Fold this sequence. Notes:
Blueprint: E1 2-5, E2 10-19, E3 22-31, H1 35-71, E4 76-82, H2 88-98, E5 102-106, H3 113-125, E6 129-133, H4 136-141, E7 146-149, H5 159-165, E8 170-175, H6 178-182, E9 191-194, H7 211-222, E10 226-228, H8 237-242, E11 247-250, H9 252-255, H10 260-273
Helix pairs in contact: 2-3, 2-10
Amino acid sequence: xxFSNRHEDVYIYATPFRCDGRRALRWRARSVGAGKxxxxxxxxxxxxxxxxxxxxxxxxxxxxxxxxxxxxxxSGVYAIVGESCSNVLDVAYxxxxxxxxxVQYRRKAGIDLDEIRTLRTATRDRxxxxxxNDDWQAAHELDCDxxxxxxxxxxxxxxxxxxxxxxxxxxxxxxxxxREALTLHRESIDYIGVGPVYPTQTKDDAGSAIGISxxxxxxxxxxxxxxxxxxxxxENIAAVxxxxxxxxxxISALASATDPRVAAHELVRLWEQSSV
Length: 276
């Protein structure tokens, strides 16, 4: 639609568009003879908008690719190091040298910045994942690959919020029953920690052992990669592997070993040689 105001030599364009189901008019004015400059300006604006959109798409694609790359490394022996270790770095190095590619740093009393920075360098040099326990914001700020959350931790009941705030981070949640597994927000979670599979003294509130049968029931209900945890040792890691779960978390099997390097190599060997 075109309207002309002959006294001021200005043309007024009314461009119809719909808004909330109602018809409205969007007005645009330009003076006679200004067509080419304004057309060029509009072209520049369109180019700028297209550039920004392409940039956003590329950024989102890189984030998605980074997340997929991290998630694909969630397999095998999963070493948990922290207050249970007499020397955190020695145990972590032993695990990494044996071929462990997932390390969780757990310090309930507080993070040792020197330790976690050293772990970050060591895991990155070996193309391994570094996860932090309990605190997803600290994990993000400290450049970890992800976080593991349990009941009572911030974000445990709102994994979609954590995922939105940290799109490329690995997010693992503790899960202790079929009922919990059925209520998980699967789209936001990368894996679940299930256990205790066997009796354990490492965690006072771990609850009763669920055994391999309980592990399989929860894994089937969750339909997510599973990290078995609780009492896993050289004597039973082959049985855990045979259950078909993606990972087996070990704490005392490394931390209490006379020689963590020997124990780590043996755990990895048993895992890799056991059939699913």
